[in-house]
Amino acid sequence: MRILRAADYRVMPWKNGGGTTTEIAVSPDGAGLDDFDWRISMARVETGGPFSSFAGIDRTLSVLEGEGIVLDVAGRLPTRLTTASAPLAFPGDAPTSAALIGGPITDLNIMTRRGRMAHEIERRPFSGEIRIAPRADVTLVLAVGAGATLFTEDGASLGPLDTLIVDQDGPELRLQPKGQGLLFVIGLHRLAANINGCCQT
Q: Is 98 exposed, middle or buried (0-12, 13-18, 19+ CB in 10 A)?
């Protein structure tokens, strides 16, 4: 188990050059935008426009701050996303654009390479003690709003936008919120074909 501090996240340009993204974690370590297996990041979106295209990537987006966006993914009806919305999954290589509802937003992006990894994400509003049983190959817990104290021997804590990473079958996590907010619990799964070093034909 380890904690990634928000102050240490890496800021880098968007793939299409239209803004900047804050990279929370990526695998393999040091991977670029074209060769990662999975990537977790946040982006500050100040104007509407097209999204970067990521070939062979499955993507899920959530709004963390701001009034929200309307996401237009090719082949689907436009979808309105706000801080209260469920995360939206879509193909990272589908032509996609967004229109801001009322000013800049910050969003959370989970991306996994199709055929190698899969992901899931759950929003957990703060409401007393929260328990999380890590079952994915990698579980990440992002604190939004207030932080949370971990029930551990050293009493470690998550500050706002800090992230906890736990490997498969780690101990149950117990967190006590410090105020109003929520947790995003992200599960990353290696697919059988990737584990066995083969691929389907």
A: buried
Residues of the chain predicted below pLDDT 50: 196-201
The alpha carbon torsion through 74, 64, 28, 17 (nearest 10 deg) reads: 60
Kindly calculate the radius of gyration of the chain based on its CA atoms and give it in whole angstroms: 17
Residues of the chain within CATH 2.60.120.10 domain(s) are 8-113, 117-192
* 53-56 long-range contacts, CB within 8 A, separation 24+: 53/15, 53/16, 53/92, 53/93, 53/95, 54/15, 54/92, 54/93, 54/111, 55/92, 55/93, 56/92, 56/93, 56/113, 56/114, 56/115
Two tokens at 170? 């780690």
Helices (H), the chain: 192-195
Please tell me whether the peptide bond between 91 and the residue prior to it is cis, using omega within 30 degrees of 0.
Answer: no
Task: Look at residue 59 in the predicted model and tell me its pLDDT.
Answer: 97
- Class of the 117-192 domain? mainly beta
Q: How confident is the model at residue 193, as a pLDDT?
A: 65
The CATH fold of domain 8-113? Jelly Rolls (2.60.120)
